[in-house]
Structures are given as structure tokens and as C-alpha cells.
Design a protein that fits this description.
The protein has 206 residues and is of the alpha/beta class. It folds into two domains: 132 residues, Alpha-Beta Complex (Conserved hypothetical protein from pyrococcus furiosus pfu- 392566-001, ParB domain), CATH 3.90.1530.10; 60 residues, Ubiquitin-associated (UBA) domain (Helicase, Ruva Protein, domain 3, Orthogonal Bundle), CATH 1.10.8. The chain contains eight helices and seven strands. It has a five-stranded mixed β-sheet with strand order 1-6-4-5-2. It has a two-stranded parallel sheet with strand order 3-7. A hairpin with a 5-residue loop joins β4 and β5. It is globular.
Amino acid sequence: MVLGREPRINPVPLLELRPTQITVGKREVDAKRIAWRKHPEKEKSDFLGRHLIPVVCGPRERYYIIDHHHLALALHREGVREVAITVVADVRQLPRDAFWIYLDNRGWLHPFDAEGKRRSYAHLPRRITDLVDDPYRSLAGELRLRGGFSKDTTPFSEFLWADFLRRRIGRRLVARHFARALTRAMKLAKGEDAGYLPGWCGRLER
């Protein structure tokens, strides 16, 4: 097993990268697409060079993304076909079942569907284009951008917030009245019930 980040200068096709989660937030993907379009063409290569996609090299020498799923999908939808990667761990020698357990125990795997239910490893998509939209992940992402909670190093912290919000805000409200759902989420984020979550910013002032 090899650990440590190993940048790959040679581009890797985006569609060869395998996800380690089932869902993304569509709104966050769309926001990254808009941000990409705003970069002048001459600066896009530099951007890609500064945003290497972290991966683990697994069985059959396949690369599994462990972060930046939203960016990878956004870039693909904007016509980018190849990206540079950084290899965080090389465990290609592991049997497939041991590989999934390894990722899970390192906090590099999030096999939860758009209903917040844990699924088997077999349900993980094989391509970034197969990632499913979870509107609560979009709500959590927007909540963080608006200062509802702080960015945190806890793996999949936004998904923990998404699950918190999923249990307290109706799906119809999120789908049809996102701004109202966000206002509700902001109030919830400042309450004591959210105190266990990563990046919690404190009590709601009365």
C-alpha cells in the first residue's frame, strides 16, 4: 500500500473516475458550472492545475474520487474531458470487498441515497454522470455559503447537515420554494439541536 499525494501530470479522462458517493446537490453543480464559464479561456488550464482531483487507486487500477465530485461533474457538463489527479492512496492490491471496507473506515465513502438511506456498495455509481441529485445536499451547500455553518474538515460534513435538514424540512418546500426552505434552514442551523454538527456556529440569538 502506498500513501501520500502523488500528482499525475498526465490528464485522466473524467469518465474513468469512479465516484465514492451516490448523490450530489444539483444547485451546487450548476453554480460551479457558472463559475467555470466566468474564467477567461487562458486561465482555465491554470484553474485545473490548481484543483487536482484527489483519488484512491483501487482494484484493476481504477481511480476512485474521494472529493470534488461536484466540480468533476460540473467540468464534465461544461465539456471538459480530462483532468489532473492526485493519488492519495494506492491500494490496488486489495480484493474488492476489502477495498470498500478500507474506504469506508477512512471516511472516504458515503453510500447514502437521495432519501438519506445507506445502501450497499453495489449501489455506488460507476461514472460521475450517474450521480443522483439530492435537493437537501443543495440546501446544505447554500446554507454554508450564507454563513449557516462553517466549512469543516469532517468528511462529508455537508451531507451530515443535509440529513439534519431532511428530517426537519419538507421535500416539497425545498423543491418548490427553495428560498423559504433556506430561511427555515438558517433558523434551524442556529438552534441547539444542530449543536452536534460539524461547523456549527452557535446558538440562535433571541
